[in-house]
User: Which sequence fits this backbone?
């Protein structure tokens, strides 16, 4: 009967232990104050939902309450760590479409675009190109780490075909007024020197510069007289991918700014919608928060106008995503004015803008991941 | 509300446990009943009215039938009326869209309708009220005259949403009289944690793989990948459903109720006949008791027996979902069971057990293809992929899936048999602290996954 007694003892202890665990955690949760922002997840945490009979009946109150309880659970960060560690121990090397790659790289997968989206974008760009045929037009569609660093992916992992999508798009634009700038080779050649951040989806400033050197060839920009010096502005950069995946959340890396040693120009940056002007491309305040990449041109704005002391008469219009933010500085010496439009936030009349600013060149500057999911560019340039 | 969530485990459950143990015995059932209403209304603020109606209606009819023991005719009419109303409610809320779709297809009409949301648990609680009213009619039990107790039977939150389907006769005495000791609470906890781990650690994770594979394009699906997808789904549905049943049984135990187990390691079966004695036991038992046996079961001629089997398996399939693929799934088993009964069950038992085992698993896995895919086109697609018409026999993606899910699959396979649990029991007897630590570990890790992921789908939910 000793076995039975032991068994009873075990269940008795199970009851005591778990009643204690559940009650202690519940009480701790009641005592804990609510947190509004999660540093590690880089997002706002849910707050206590407001009660209303209407919301209760719709089921919204209970849904919001459930999210609130989860977001504000005590030791949340520890639990998240336990979860991602268990996943890792079970062999998982991919979380939320982000691969845990070799050499410390987090690599975001490419999402296959729908053919409707592709065709709609192609049509819009081609027709706009024809319409603006007096203006020189260029496109830089940059592959991201999923293509360039594909040999750093975990064993047997294969990303979706970003290269194919880029090639397909370039083929569609063949014979049009738009000249393509192909940066793939250059990025691959230089990948060991770090063209992408390890914990973020952006290219490094070095990566942007490498791409620029390719662009200069196509856009006929003389680069011999201008040289740059890399300056580290922070060693504490934690990118978006570590937050998105939960991998490498303690990893910090450096972020650089390239300052011209010779041949630079002076400039004024005008944030049009916010009606603010500055004389620097960089918002140093952003180095104090988590999203440090936003230091470049203060993140994403609907419209920015930069006037420079360049002797060139050319005026450039750029349609872009955030990859352009760390690239634009290299274009400054060659243009009297650069107008930057982010179609995700721009609601103006682009044709009016082109006429007013006397735009002489257009550049589309995107990374493939954002570009193929985009549906805002075509509404801006569409007729 | 679902069990595998933070708010259930750390808010609802402690509050209900506390209230339950604080109130004097006469109020305990009331506490449970009200908590169950709250539990259901939390997820279904509107359909709670439907469930309350079902409770009130079946309560009254049960009492009425019981009051007319001398008048068989009256009793029979009442019973038929009750059954019709109960089935009509179930049919209306669950099958009316399906019915209209079928009519439209057959008659080439275009009757439009507004799709109603399915009330959670309606298939489960309807079957419970039906079992009650039929048992009262048969004189197996006396009607429950306390509406709280009856309401508790129908709506008890441990088994309300996803079973096991509890027959009234099995629980009648426990409604009035149950013994709760610290040992039974501990046993309940152990069951609950086992179920929670099955659902959150095994089912959800292997389910993510199943979902990913099923959404791959044909050019990305090698034959072996398709196999992985089917096996992953069979693991998901087993651990999801049996995990939920374990949690239900564990929670019942914490309040003094003993429910019969709903799964008995079905994937060790050596025949389909055996499989259905081990899978979703409470449903099979319900259909046997209230449909198969009243129709004559297998004690009638061969033709009628076959008819009975078809009716039962048609209904079993249809119970699982308002779509023809579920009927196909049910009939698939009906045919296999007939074949086994009339042709080769004996031969099967004479074969080496591994062969019988493989035969059973292959059939079961194929059945899940019908279960998972609602259209014949999708079913066809899966079979095409299995036979290599996608991306060949094996590709790099297959290797990637195997490499990143190997341990998970291994754990799943081990947990399909009682082997791991027996080892755990042996260890616990020798040194109970190891047993405690393992349970605590499973609980903490499960809680971690729950905190991380508010979205936590349960496959048998909408039934």
Assistant:
């Amino acid at each position: 009967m000793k076995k039975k007694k032991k068994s009873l003892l075990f269940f008795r202890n199970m009851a005591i232990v778990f009643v204690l665990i559940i009650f202690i955690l519940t009480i701790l949760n009641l005592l804990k104050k609510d947190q509004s922002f999660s540093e590690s997840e880089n997002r706002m945490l849910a707050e206590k939902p407001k009660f209303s009979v209407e919301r209760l009946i719709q089921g919204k109150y209970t849904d919001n309450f459930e999210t609130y309880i989860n977001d504000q659970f005590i030791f949340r960060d520890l639990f998240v760590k336990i979860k991602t560690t268990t996943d890792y121990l079970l062999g998982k090397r991919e979380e939320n479409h982000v691969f845990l790659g070799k050499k410390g790289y987090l690599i975001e997968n490419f999402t296959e675009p729908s053919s409707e989206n592709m065709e709609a974008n192609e049509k819009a760009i081609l027709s706009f190109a024809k319409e603006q045929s007096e203006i020189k037009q260029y496109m830089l569609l940059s592959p991201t780490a999923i293509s360039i660093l594909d040999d750093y992916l975990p064993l047997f992992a294969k990303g979706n075909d970003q290269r194919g999508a880029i090639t397909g798009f370039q083929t569609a634009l063949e014979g049009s007024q738009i000249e393509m700038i192909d940066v793939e080779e250059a990025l691959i050649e230089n990948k060991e020197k770090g063209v992408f951040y390890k914990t973020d989806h952006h290219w490094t400033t070095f990566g942007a510069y490498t791409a620029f050197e390719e662009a200069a060839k196509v856009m006929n920009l003389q680069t011999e007289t201008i040289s740059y010096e890399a300056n580290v502005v922070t060693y504490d950069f934690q990118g978006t991918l570590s937050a998105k995946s939960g991998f490498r959340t303690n990893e910090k890396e450096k972020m650089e700014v390239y300052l011209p040693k010779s041949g630079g120009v002076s400039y004024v940056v005008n944030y049009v919608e916010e009606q603010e002007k500055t004389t620097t491309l960089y918002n140093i305040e952003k180095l104090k928060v988590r999203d440090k990449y936003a230091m470049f041109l203060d993140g994403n704005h609907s419209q920015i106008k930069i006037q420079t002391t360049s002797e060139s008469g050319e005026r450039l219009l750029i349609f872009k995503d955030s990859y352009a933010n760390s690239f634009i500085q290299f274009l400054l010496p060659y243009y009297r004015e650069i107008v930057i439009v982010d179609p995700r936030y721009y609601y103006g009349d682009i044709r009016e803008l082109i006429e007013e600013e006397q735009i002489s060149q257009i550049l589309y500057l995107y990374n493939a991941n954002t570009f193929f999911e985009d549906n805002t560019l075509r509404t801006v340039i569409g007729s | 509300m679902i069990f595998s969530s933070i708010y259930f485990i750390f808010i609802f459950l402690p509050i209900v446990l506390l209230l339950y143990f604080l109130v004097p015995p006469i109020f305990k059932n009331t506490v449970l009943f009200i908590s169950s209403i709250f539990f259901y209304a939390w997820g279904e603020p509107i359909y709670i009215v439907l469930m309350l109606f079902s409770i009130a209606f079946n309560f009254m009819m049960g009492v009425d039938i019981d009051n007319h023991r001398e008048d068989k005719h009256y009793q029979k009419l009442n019973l038929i009326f009750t059954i019709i109303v109960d089935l009509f409610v179930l049919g209306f809320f669950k099958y009316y869209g399906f019915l209209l779709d079928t009519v439209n297809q057959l008659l080439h009409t275009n009757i439009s309708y507004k799709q109603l949301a399915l009330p959670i648990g309606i298939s489960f609680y309807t079957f419970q009220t039906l079992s009650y009213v039929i048992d009262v009619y048969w004189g197996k039990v006396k009607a429950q005259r306390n509406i709280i107790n009856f309401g508790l039977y129908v709506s008890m939150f441990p088994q309300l949403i996803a079973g096991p389907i509890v027959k009234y006769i099995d629980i009648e005495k426990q409604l009035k009289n149950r013994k709760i000791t610290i040992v039974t609470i501990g046993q309940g906890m152990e069951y609950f944690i086992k179920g929670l781990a099955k659902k959150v650690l095994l089912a959800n994770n292997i389910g993510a793989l199943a979902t990913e594979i099923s959404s791959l394009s044909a050019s990305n699906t090698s034959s072996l990948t398709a196999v992985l997808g089917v096996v992953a789904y069979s693991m998901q549905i087993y651990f999801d459903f049996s995990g939920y049943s374990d949690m239900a049984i564990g929670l019942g135990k914490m309040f003094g109720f003993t429910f019969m187990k709903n799964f008995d390691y079905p994937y060790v079966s050596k025949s389909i006949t055996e499989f259905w004695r081990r899978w979703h036991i409470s449903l099979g038992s319900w259909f046997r008791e209230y449909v198969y046996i009243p129709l004559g079961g297998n004690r009638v001629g061969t033709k009628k027996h076959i008819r009975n089997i078809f009716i039962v398996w048609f209904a079993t399939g249809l119970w699982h979902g308002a779509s023809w693929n579920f009927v196909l799934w049910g009939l698939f088993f009906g045919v296999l069971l007939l074949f086994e009964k009339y042709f080769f069950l004996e031969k099967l038992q004479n074969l080496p057990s591994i062969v019988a085992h493989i035969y059973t698993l292959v059939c079961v896995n194929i059945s899940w293809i019908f279960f998972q895919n609602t259209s014949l086109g999708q079913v066809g697609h899966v079979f095409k992929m299995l036979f290599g018409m996608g991306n060949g026999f094996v590709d790099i993606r297959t290797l990637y899936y195997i490499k990143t899910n190997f341990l998970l699959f291994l754990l799943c396979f081990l947990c399909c048999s009682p082997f791991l649990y027996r080892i755990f029991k042996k260890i616990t007897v020798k040194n109970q602290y190891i047993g405690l630590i393992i349970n605590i570990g499973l609980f903490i890790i499960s809680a971690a996954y729950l905190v991380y992921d508010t979205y936590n789908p349960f496959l048998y939910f909408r039934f």
Summary: Chain A has two domains: 1-29, 114-381. Chain A touches chain B through 51 residues (CB under 8 Å). Residues 144 and 367 of chain A are 7 Å apart (CA to CA). The two ends of chain A are 87 Å apart (CA to CA).
